[in-house]
Design a protein that fits this description.
Layout: H1 22-29, E1 35-38, E2 46-49, H2 54-61, H3 65-77, E3 83-84, E4 93-95, E5 116-117, E6 121-126, E7 129-134, E8 137-141, E9 144-147, H4 153-163, E10 168-174, H5 178-184, H6 194-206, E11 211-214, E12 220-222, E13 227-240, E14 243-244, E15 250-251, E16 254-266, E17 271-273, H7 280-287, H8 291-299, E18 303-309, E19 318-324, H9 330-341, E20 347-352, H10 360-370, E21 377-384, E22 397-405
Parallel strand pairs: 2-17, 3-11, 19-20, 20-22
Antiparallel strand pairs: 1-2, 4-16, 5-8, 6-7, 6-10, 8-9, 9-16, 10-13, 11-12, 13-16, 14-15, 18-19, 21-22
Helix pairs in contact: 3-6, 3-8, 5-6, 8-9
Protein backbone atom coordinates (compact mmCIF):
# COMPACT_ATOMS: atom_id res chain seq x y z
CA UNK A 1 0.00 0.00 0.00
CA UNK A 2 1.03 3.59 -0.56
CA UNK A 3 -0.07 6.95 0.75
CA UNK A 4 -1.95 7.68 -2.47
CA UNK A 5 -4.05 4.54 -2.03
CA UNK A 6 -5.73 6.24 0.94
CA UNK A 7 -6.98 9.21 -1.06
CA UNK A 8 -10.12 7.71 -2.57
CA UNK A 9 -13.30 9.80 -2.39
CA UNK A 10 -11.31 12.98 -1.79
CA UNK A 11 -12.69 16.35 -2.83
CA UNK A 12 -10.70 17.59 -5.81
CA UNK A 13 -11.31 21.24 -6.72
CA UNK A 14 -11.41 22.25 -10.38
CA UNK A 15 -8.92 25.09 -9.85
CA UNK A 16 -5.38 24.82 -8.52
CA UNK A 17 -4.95 25.97 -4.93
CA UNK A 18 -2.21 28.17 -3.48
CA UNK A 19 0.08 26.62 -0.89
CA UNK A 20 0.15 30.02 0.83
CA UNK A 21 -2.99 29.86 3.01
CA UNK A 22 -5.13 28.62 0.10
CA UNK A 23 -5.23 24.95 1.07
CA UNK A 24 -5.87 25.87 4.69
CA UNK A 25 -8.73 28.21 3.78
CA UNK A 26 -10.29 25.57 1.52
CA UNK A 27 -10.03 22.98 4.29
CA UNK A 28 -11.72 25.30 6.78
CA UNK A 29 -14.53 26.04 4.32
CA UNK A 30 -15.12 22.30 3.84
CA UNK A 31 -14.94 21.56 7.58
CA UNK A 32 -11.65 19.73 7.15
CA UNK A 33 -12.77 16.84 4.98
CA UNK A 34 -10.36 14.89 2.75
CA UNK A 35 -8.95 17.12 -0.02
CA UNK A 36 -6.53 16.47 -2.87
CA UNK A 37 -5.66 19.50 -5.01
CA UNK A 38 -3.21 20.77 -7.60
CA UNK A 39 -0.76 23.26 -6.11
CA UNK A 40 -0.76 26.59 -7.96
CA UNK A 41 2.89 27.38 -7.22
CA UNK A 42 4.30 23.93 -8.08
CA UNK A 43 3.02 22.53 -11.41
CA UNK A 44 3.03 18.74 -11.54
CA UNK A 45 2.66 18.40 -7.78
CA UNK A 46 -0.49 17.90 -5.75
CA UNK A 47 -1.08 18.06 -2.02
CA UNK A 48 -3.47 16.18 0.24
CA UNK A 49 -4.86 17.13 3.63
CA UNK A 50 -7.12 15.57 6.30
CA UNK A 51 -6.12 12.10 5.13
CA UNK A 52 -5.80 10.15 8.38
CA UNK A 53 -8.28 11.20 11.04
CA UNK A 54 -8.88 8.60 13.77
CA UNK A 55 -12.06 7.35 12.10
CA UNK A 56 -10.57 7.26 8.59
CA UNK A 57 -7.41 5.56 9.85
CA UNK A 58 -9.38 2.84 11.62
CA UNK A 59 -11.60 2.36 8.57
CA UNK A 60 -8.58 2.04 6.27
CA UNK A 61 -7.11 -0.68 8.49
CA UNK A 62 -10.51 -2.27 9.23
CA UNK A 63 -10.08 -1.97 12.99
CA UNK A 64 -11.86 -0.38 15.91
CA UNK A 65 -9.84 2.20 17.88
CA UNK A 66 -9.39 -0.30 20.71
CA UNK A 67 -8.17 -2.97 18.30
CA UNK A 68 -5.74 -0.52 16.70
CA UNK A 69 -4.24 0.27 20.10
CA UNK A 70 -3.66 -3.44 20.73
CA UNK A 71 -2.10 -3.95 17.28
CA UNK A 72 0.28 -1.03 17.83
CA UNK A 73 1.27 -2.50 21.19
CA UNK A 74 1.81 -5.89 19.54
CA UNK A 75 4.05 -4.39 16.85
CA UNK A 76 6.26 -2.74 19.45
CA UNK A 77 7.10 -6.20 20.81
CA UNK A 78 7.18 -8.13 17.51
CA UNK A 79 9.47 -6.06 15.32
CA UNK A 80 10.81 -7.46 12.05
CA UNK A 81 13.44 -6.34 9.58
CA UNK A 82 12.51 -4.33 6.51
CA UNK A 83 12.96 -5.71 2.97
CA UNK A 84 15.52 -3.79 0.88
CA UNK A 85 14.72 -3.38 -2.83
CA UNK A 86 16.90 -2.04 -5.66
CA UNK A 87 14.35 0.22 -7.34
CA UNK A 88 11.25 1.96 -6.06
CA UNK A 89 8.50 4.40 -7.05
CA UNK A 90 9.95 7.09 -4.77
CA UNK A 91 13.07 7.20 -7.00
CA UNK A 92 11.19 7.81 -10.27
CA UNK A 93 12.35 11.47 -10.32
CA UNK A 94 15.45 13.14 -8.87
CA UNK A 95 16.24 16.81 -8.28
CA UNK A 96 19.92 17.48 -7.59
CA UNK A 97 19.76 21.25 -7.94
CA UNK A 98 17.57 21.44 -4.88
CA UNK A 99 14.84 24.06 -4.72
CA UNK A 100 12.44 23.28 -1.89
CA UNK A 101 10.26 26.21 -2.92
CA UNK A 102 9.29 24.16 -5.97
CA UNK A 103 7.58 21.62 -3.70
CA UNK A 104 4.02 22.08 -2.38
CA UNK A 105 5.14 22.81 1.19
CA UNK A 106 2.24 24.76 2.69
CA UNK A 107 1.94 27.89 4.79
CA UNK A 108 -1.27 27.07 6.68
CA UNK A 109 -1.88 29.43 9.60
CA UNK A 110 -1.16 33.07 9.02
CA UNK A 111 0.43 33.16 12.47
CA UNK A 112 3.09 30.60 11.47
CA UNK A 113 6.62 31.68 10.66
CA UNK A 114 6.16 30.52 7.06
CA UNK A 115 5.96 27.33 5.03
CA UNK A 116 6.23 24.13 7.08
CA UNK A 117 6.52 20.40 6.53
CA UNK A 118 4.40 19.01 9.37
CA UNK A 119 3.83 15.41 8.21
CA UNK A 120 7.37 14.61 7.04
CA UNK A 121 9.36 12.06 9.03
CA UNK A 122 13.10 12.10 9.63
CA UNK A 123 15.14 8.90 9.39
CA UNK A 124 18.57 9.33 10.97
CA UNK A 125 21.52 7.02 11.55
CA UNK A 126 24.52 7.64 13.79
CA UNK A 127 27.00 5.25 15.41
CA UNK A 128 24.94 2.20 14.52
CA UNK A 129 21.63 3.52 15.82
CA UNK A 130 18.63 4.46 13.71
CA UNK A 131 15.83 6.80 14.72
CA UNK A 132 12.58 7.54 12.89
CA UNK A 133 10.49 10.43 14.16
CA UNK A 134 8.31 13.42 13.32
CA UNK A 135 9.79 16.91 13.41
CA UNK A 136 8.12 20.00 12.04
CA UNK A 137 10.41 21.74 9.55
CA UNK A 138 10.36 25.41 8.63
CA UNK A 139 11.32 26.12 5.02
CA UNK A 140 14.15 28.63 5.48
CA UNK A 141 15.47 28.78 1.92
CA UNK A 142 15.91 26.70 -1.23
CA UNK A 143 17.92 23.92 0.41
CA UNK A 144 17.62 24.36 4.18
CA UNK A 145 14.91 23.75 6.77
CA UNK A 146 14.95 24.48 10.50
CA UNK A 147 13.50 21.63 12.55
CA UNK A 148 12.11 21.55 16.07
CA UNK A 149 13.86 18.76 18.00
CA UNK A 150 12.39 18.02 21.42
CA UNK A 151 14.70 16.35 23.98
CA UNK A 152 14.20 12.77 22.81
CA UNK A 153 16.35 10.29 20.91
CA UNK A 154 17.23 12.33 17.83
CA UNK A 155 18.24 15.30 19.99
CA UNK A 156 20.42 12.97 22.07
CA UNK A 157 22.04 11.62 18.90
CA UNK A 158 22.64 15.14 17.62
CA UNK A 159 24.16 16.35 20.90
CA UNK A 160 26.62 13.46 20.79
CA UNK A 161 27.44 14.06 17.12
CA UNK A 162 28.13 17.72 17.73
CA UNK A 163 30.41 16.86 20.65
CA UNK A 164 32.33 14.64 18.21
CA UNK A 165 32.39 17.34 15.52
CA UNK A 166 30.10 15.31 13.25
CA UNK A 167 26.97 15.95 11.24
CA UNK A 168 24.22 13.30 10.98
CA UNK A 169 23.07 11.88 7.62
CA UNK A 170 19.29 11.77 7.38
CA UNK A 171 16.40 11.26 5.01
CA UNK A 172 13.31 13.46 5.07
CA UNK A 173 10.31 11.47 3.85
CA UNK A 174 6.82 12.70 3.00
CA UNK A 175 3.73 10.79 1.91
CA UNK A 176 4.15 7.46 3.69
CA UNK A 177 1.65 4.70 4.28
CA UNK A 178 -0.13 5.09 7.67
CA UNK A 179 1.72 2.15 9.24
CA UNK A 180 5.00 4.03 8.78
CA UNK A 181 3.56 7.24 10.19
CA UNK A 182 2.13 5.47 13.24
CA UNK A 183 5.46 3.80 13.96
CA UNK A 184 7.34 7.09 13.53
CA UNK A 185 5.05 8.72 16.10
CA UNK A 186 5.91 6.14 18.76
CA UNK A 187 8.34 6.95 21.55
CA UNK A 188 10.40 4.45 23.51
CA UNK A 189 12.57 4.66 26.62
CA UNK A 190 15.32 2.67 24.88
CA UNK A 191 16.67 3.06 21.36
CA UNK A 192 14.41 1.08 19.01
CA UNK A 193 14.44 1.19 15.22
CA UNK A 194 10.95 2.43 14.41
CA UNK A 195 11.27 1.10 10.85
CA UNK A 196 11.21 -2.41 12.33
CA UNK A 197 7.91 -1.56 14.08
CA UNK A 198 6.55 -0.21 10.78
CA UNK A 199 7.70 -3.40 9.07
CA UNK A 200 5.81 -5.54 11.59
CA UNK A 201 2.66 -3.50 10.98
CA UNK A 202 3.16 -3.66 7.22
CA UNK A 203 3.53 -7.43 7.40
CA UNK A 204 0.39 -7.78 9.53
CA UNK A 205 -1.83 -5.62 7.34
CA UNK A 206 -0.38 -6.25 3.88
CA UNK A 207 1.31 -9.63 4.16
CA UNK A 208 4.94 -8.63 3.62
CA UNK A 209 7.69 -6.67 5.43
CA UNK A 210 8.04 -2.98 4.68
CA UNK A 211 9.94 -2.50 1.39
CA UNK A 212 12.69 0.12 1.63
CA UNK A 213 15.24 1.54 -0.78
CA UNK A 214 18.55 3.15 0.17
CA UNK A 215 19.25 6.74 -0.80
CA UNK A 216 22.67 7.84 -1.96
CA UNK A 217 23.71 8.65 1.63
CA UNK A 218 22.85 5.08 2.72
CA UNK A 219 19.65 5.91 4.59
CA UNK A 220 16.76 3.49 3.86
CA UNK A 221 13.36 5.01 3.08
CA UNK A 222 9.93 3.46 2.41
CA UNK A 223 9.93 2.47 -1.26
CA UNK A 224 6.36 3.65 -1.88
CA UNK A 225 6.68 7.08 -0.26
CA UNK A 226 5.78 10.14 -2.33
CA UNK A 227 8.96 12.16 -1.55
CA UNK A 228 12.38 11.31 -0.08
CA UNK A 229 15.18 13.82 0.45
CA UNK A 230 18.82 13.12 1.26
CA UNK A 231 19.99 15.57 3.89
CA UNK A 232 22.18 16.11 6.92
CA UNK A 233 21.72 17.74 10.31
CA UNK A 234 24.32 20.48 10.35
CA UNK A 235 26.17 22.14 13.23
CA UNK A 236 24.16 25.32 12.63
CA UNK A 237 21.12 26.52 14.60
CA UNK A 238 18.58 29.11 13.49
CA UNK A 239 15.30 30.60 14.70
CA UNK A 240 12.26 28.30 14.44
CA UNK A 241 8.58 29.18 15.15
CA UNK A 242 6.15 30.75 15.88
CA UNK A 243 4.08 27.74 14.86
CA UNK A 244 0.53 26.70 15.68
CA UNK A 245 0.96 23.28 17.29
CA UNK A 246 -1.40 20.52 18.42
CA UNK A 247 -2.94 22.64 21.19
CA UNK A 248 -4.03 25.27 18.66
CA UNK A 249 -1.77 27.78 20.41
CA UNK A 250 1.46 29.35 19.15
CA UNK A 251 4.60 27.52 20.19
CA UNK A 252 7.60 29.60 21.25
CA UNK A 253 10.48 30.76 19.09
CA UNK A 254 13.68 28.80 19.74
CA UNK A 255 17.08 28.25 18.21
CA UNK A 256 16.85 24.85 16.50
CA UNK A 257 19.03 22.69 14.21
CA UNK A 258 19.34 23.42 10.50
CA UNK A 259 18.98 20.57 7.99
CA UNK A 260 20.75 20.87 4.63
CA UNK A 261 19.02 19.04 1.76
CA UNK A 262 21.28 17.57 -0.94
CA UNK A 263 18.77 15.94 -3.29
CA UNK A 264 15.03 15.42 -3.67
CA UNK A 265 13.42 12.25 -5.02
CA UNK A 266 9.74 11.82 -5.75
CA UNK A 267 7.24 9.64 -7.53
CA UNK A 268 5.63 10.49 -10.83
CA UNK A 269 2.74 12.89 -10.18
CA UNK A 270 3.62 13.12 -6.49
CA UNK A 271 1.14 13.99 -3.73
CA UNK A 272 2.52 15.95 -0.76
CA UNK A 273 1.03 15.20 2.67
CA UNK A 274 0.15 18.70 3.94
CA UNK A 275 -1.13 17.98 7.45
CA UNK A 276 -2.83 20.89 9.26
CA UNK A 277 -1.60 21.17 12.87
CA UNK A 278 -4.20 21.02 15.66
CA UNK A 279 -6.79 19.32 13.45
CA UNK A 280 -8.08 15.73 13.71
CA UNK A 281 -5.34 14.23 11.55
CA UNK A 282 -2.59 15.73 13.70
CA UNK A 283 -4.24 14.51 16.91
CA UNK A 284 -4.71 10.99 15.53
CA UNK A 285 -1.14 10.55 14.30
CA UNK A 286 0.41 12.12 17.39
CA UNK A 287 -1.91 10.75 20.07
CA UNK A 288 -2.89 7.25 18.95
CA UNK A 289 0.64 5.81 19.23
CA UNK A 290 0.78 6.95 22.87
CA UNK A 291 -2.28 4.88 23.84
CA UNK A 292 -0.42 1.51 23.67
CA UNK A 293 2.30 2.73 26.06
CA UNK A 294 -0.36 3.96 28.49
CA UNK A 295 -2.26 0.66 28.26
CA UNK A 296 0.95 -1.31 28.75
CA UNK A 297 1.84 0.71 31.86
CA UNK A 298 -1.65 0.43 33.38
CA UNK A 299 -1.84 -3.30 32.60
CA UNK A 300 1.02 -3.85 35.03
CA UNK A 301 -1.16 -2.72 37.95
CA UNK A 302 -4.74 -3.52 36.82
CA UNK A 303 -6.81 -5.21 34.13
CA UNK A 304 -6.83 -2.51 31.43
CA UNK A 305 -9.36 -2.55 28.58
CA UNK A 306 -9.11 0.66 26.56
CA UNK A 307 -7.41 4.05 26.32
CA UNK A 308 -8.72 7.17 24.62
CA UNK A 309 -6.66 10.33 24.07
CA UNK A 310 -9.33 13.01 24.38
CA UNK A 311 -10.24 15.75 21.93
CA UNK A 312 -10.27 18.41 24.65
CA UNK A 313 -6.78 17.29 25.63
CA UNK A 314 -5.69 17.84 22.03
CA UNK A 315 -5.05 14.13 21.58
CA UNK A 316 -1.96 14.58 23.74
CA UNK A 317 -2.43 16.03 27.23
CA UNK A 318 -5.39 14.03 28.57
CA UNK A 319 -6.68 10.45 28.44
CA UNK A 320 -9.51 8.28 29.69
CA UNK A 321 -8.61 4.71 30.68
CA UNK A 322 -11.01 1.86 31.40
CA UNK A 323 -10.10 -0.94 33.82
CA UNK A 324 -11.68 -3.71 35.87
CA UNK A 325 -10.53 -3.11 39.45
CA UNK A 326 -9.50 -6.25 41.31
CA UNK A 327 -8.52 -4.26 44.38
CA UNK A 328 -9.74 -1.02 45.95
CA UNK A 329 -6.36 0.61 45.17
CA UNK A 330 -6.36 -0.29 41.47
CA UNK A 331 -7.92 3.01 40.37
CA UNK A 332 -5.32 5.14 42.11
CA UNK A 333 -2.47 2.90 41.02
CA UNK A 334 -3.75 3.12 37.46
CA UNK A 335 -3.61 6.92 37.60
CA UNK A 336 0.08 6.86 38.49
CA UNK A 337 0.86 4.18 35.92
CA UNK A 338 -0.94 6.01 33.13
CA UNK A 339 0.88 9.28 33.81
CA UNK A 340 4.17 7.37 33.80
CA UNK A 341 3.21 5.65 30.53
CA UNK A 342 2.93 9.00 28.73
CA UNK A 343 4.99 11.60 30.53
CA UNK A 344 3.61 14.54 28.53
CA UNK A 345 0.11 13.80 29.80
CA UNK A 346 -1.38 16.22 32.30
CA UNK A 347 -4.71 14.62 33.21
CA UNK A 348 -6.11 11.09 33.29
CA UNK A 349 -9.52 9.75 34.24
CA UNK A 350 -9.92 6.09 35.20
CA UNK A 351 -13.33 4.49 34.60
CA UNK A 352 -14.90 1.04 34.71
CA UNK A 353 -15.30 -1.22 31.67
CA UNK A 354 -18.97 -0.29 31.23
CA UNK A 355 -18.04 3.31 30.35
CA UNK A 356 -17.26 4.19 26.73
CA UNK A 357 -13.91 5.97 27.04
CA UNK A 358 -14.53 7.90 23.80
CA UNK A 359 -17.88 9.35 24.99
CA UNK A 360 -17.28 12.49 27.08
CA UNK A 361 -20.88 12.47 28.35
CA UNK A 362 -20.55 8.94 29.72
CA UNK A 363 -17.17 9.75 31.23
CA UNK A 364 -18.57 12.80 33.01
CA UNK A 365 -21.55 10.71 34.15
CA UNK A 366 -19.15 8.20 35.70
CA UNK A 367 -17.38 10.98 37.52
CA UNK A 368 -20.60 12.50 38.84
CA UNK A 369 -21.92 9.16 40.13
CA UNK A 370 -18.77 7.25 41.11
CA UNK A 371 -16.13 9.85 42.05
CA UNK A 372 -15.64 11.78 45.31
CA UNK A 373 -13.27 14.75 44.82
CA UNK A 374 -11.57 14.57 48.22
CA UNK A 375 -10.99 10.81 48.22
CA UNK A 376 -10.63 9.88 44.56
CA UNK A 377 -8.31 12.59 43.21
CA UNK A 378 -4.53 12.55 42.95
CA UNK A 379 -2.62 15.79 42.35
CA UNK A 380 1.10 15.64 41.66
CA UNK A 381 3.19 18.83 41.76
CA UNK A 382 6.56 19.60 40.19
CA UNK A 383 6.19 17.07 37.39
CA UNK A 384 7.91 17.07 34.00
CA UNK A 385 5.51 18.84 31.68
CA UNK A 386 4.93 19.04 27.96
CA UNK A 387 6.56 21.87 26.03
CA UNK A 388 3.24 22.14 24.18
CA UNK A 389 1.39 23.19 27.36
CA UNK A 390 1.37 27.01 27.49
CA UNK A 391 0.45 26.94 31.19
CA UNK A 392 3.62 25.08 32.22
CA UNK A 393 5.94 26.69 34.75
CA UNK A 394 9.00 28.65 33.68
CA UNK A 395 11.23 25.67 34.51
CA UNK A 396 9.12 23.38 32.31
CA UNK A 397 7.36 21.62 35.18
CA UNK A 398 3.64 21.29 35.72
CA UNK A 399 1.11 19.79 38.11
CA UNK A 400 -0.78 16.68 37.02
CA UNK A 401 -4.15 15.33 38.10
CA UNK A 402 -5.88 11.97 38.06
CA UNK A 403 -9.50 11.11 38.73
CA UNK A 404 -10.53 7.67 39.95
CA UNK A 405 -14.13 7.14 38.80
CA UNK A 406 -14.09 3.38 39.28
CA UNK A 407 -16.12 1.25 41.67
CA UNK A 408 -14.34 -0.74 44.35
CA UNK A 409 -14.74 -4.48 43.60
CA UNK A 410 -16.23 -5.29 47.02
CA UNK A 411 -19.22 -2.93 46.83
CA UNK A 412 -22.72 -3.54 45.46
CA UNK A 413 -22.64 -2.02 41.97
CA UNK A 414 -26.42 -1.87 41.61
CA UNK A 415 -26.87 1.72 42.85
CA UNK A 416 -24.12 2.89 40.50
CA UNK A 417 -25.35 1.18 37.34
CA UNK A 418 -27.16 3.14 34.63
CA UNK A 419 -30.50 1.61 33.58
CA UNK A 420 -30.72 3.61 30.33
Amino acid sequence: MAFRDHLVNAFNPDESISCIHGLFDLSVSRKHDLIVADCAETPGHQFAVNVLSRARLCAALNLTPGELIDVLGWAMNNRIETATVDSAPVLENTQVNVDLTSLPIPHHYREDRGRYMSASIVIAEYEGQRNVSFHRQFLRDANHVVARLVPRHLRTMLDKARENGDTIPIAIVNGCDPVVLLAAAMSFDEHIDELSVASALHNKFYGNPLPVVCLENGIPVPANAEYAMTAEITAEDDVEAPYVDITGTLDDERMEPVFRIHSVHHRNNPVFHALIPAEAEHKALMGLPRAPTIKSAVSKVATCHDVHMTEGGCGWLSAVVSITPNDAADGRNSIKAALNGHKSMKMVTIVDKDIDVSDPVRVEWAMMTRWQPDADTIILSGQKGSSLDPSRNDDGTTAKIGYDATLSPEIDKGPYTSVQ
